[in-house]
Amino acid sequence: MSNRLWRTAALMCAAVCLAVPVSAQQTLNFSLGYFAPNGYDSRVQGDVLVANRDFLIFDISDFGGAAVGGEWLVALGRYLEAGAGLQYTQQTVPSVYADFVDPNGTEIDQDTRLRRLPIDFTVRVLPFGQGTAVQPYVGGGLTVINWHYKEFGEFVDFDAGRRIIIGEFADDGTQVGAAVVGGVRFGVRGVTAGFEVRYHHADADLSSDFAGPRLDLGGWTYQGTAGFRF
Questions:
Q1: Taking the domain 3-16+27-229, which CATH number applies?
Q2: What is the pLDDT of residues 94-130, one digit of tens each?
C-alpha cells in the first residue's frame, strides 16, 4: 500500500475515533460469508478476466469464495453508527486454452489467483434506533482494497510461433473505491447475530504483461455476523 493510501486509511480511522464519545456503545463484529465477483456483463471495460475468456476456458464466478472479516462499530447517537473493518478473500482458479493443446495432445493449463483485502470505513443509519431487539441498517462509505493478482503455469507465446512456455505474471496494489452495506441484526444485550450484504465498487490498473489493462475488484459479499457489545 502506498504511503498516501496508508495515510488516507489512518486519517479515516482517526476521524472515527475522535468523533466517538468514550461512553458510546461499541461492538466488535466478526463475519463469515461468500464473496461473489461482478459477472461477465457488469465488469469494468478492459477487465483482464473478460479478456482471458477469449482464449481460456473458465468461469468468472469461480473467483467467488469464502470471505472472513472483522469490524469495529461505534454508536453516533441513537440512529447512526460508524464502522471500520476489513475482509479477506482469495481464490485460485484453474483454466485451459480453448483452441490449443500441447504437441503431445495434453491440455495447456494455467492457474489464476486473486486476493482481496478490503478495508472499509462506513456510516450506517438504523431506522429503529439503538437498543431495539431487531435492528435493520443501511449505509456506505469508503473502501481501500489491497489486492494481488497472479497468472501462473503454461502459456502460449504467440510472438514466438505459438511456443509453449512455463511462467508466472503478477501484479498488486491498493485501490480506493466505494462500499455499500445493508443488513439486520438481533439482540439487545452483550451478544448480537445477524445477516449482511455488502457491495464493493473499485477497479485497478494492471501492467502490460496481461491480456487486459484493468482488474475489476468489485462484487457482492453475503455474510452472517456475530457481535460482542461493550
A1: 2.40.160.20
A2: 999 999 998 888 999 999 999 999 999 999 999 999 8
